[in-house]
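sorry for the late reply, my laptop died twice this morning and i had to redo everyting from scratch. anyway the thing you sent over, i finally got around to it. pasting the sequence first so we're on the same page, its 240 residues, then the predicted structure underneath. double check i copied it right bc i was rushing
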Amino acid sequence: MRSSSTTRNHHFQRAEGARADLPARRLGGARPAEIWANTREVIGQALSSANLTRHEIASVGITNQRETTVIWDRHTGEPVYNAIVWQDTRTQHIVDELAADGGPERFKDRVGLPLATYFAGTKIKWILDNVEGTRERAEAGDLLFGTTDSWLVWNLTGGTDGGVHITDVTNASRTLFMDLKTLEWDDEILDIFGVPKSLLPRSSHRLRCTARCTAASCSARCRWWHPRGPAGCDVRPGSL
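ok and here's the structure:
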């Protein structure tokens, strides 16, 4: 696929249209549906400006905020709440409660991170605890969580019609839930947070997956990068 700085600059300028609200109390929310709509628009404009068709796309990459948290309904594709962005500090009380037993570095030997409002794990817990009905729906397997990469990949690959729910280990490592030694979700930590494992995306270190973007988005052949070495994979996180 050909690319140009002009196309990239246009992409970043257009992305500013996905508003994030940051009141004085540092509550930050972005609109997931708007992010997805803007992404589709940018894809179309990038193809047009490069004089390409969707059939000429070899791969797709995504760069994203690794902690911004989206939870949505797997059956309808509707987000249950605005995306909570990385700057948001509403979860400080959750951090304090968890740190009361073992301090802010309680899980650091496993996940490599201190307890902090910055990371996705406390944001997931906040949504489940505070948005009516979400915990019951999550426990029933009806909801999905992702940082922005997972939200976009799920939509690009079909959404409610077979969308692929995945992430890569670099994004997974920013949730507070991934064991750095095994590169797996840590069941004990999930239980402490009260987060159902079914909510989480599959981590690409153990994924052998070839997905195809739908015609409604870009219809490019999308393959996910395997961080321990190439596995016939063309999509690498970090470079749209």
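The chain has one domain: 5-223.
thats about all i looked at so far, will dig more tmrw
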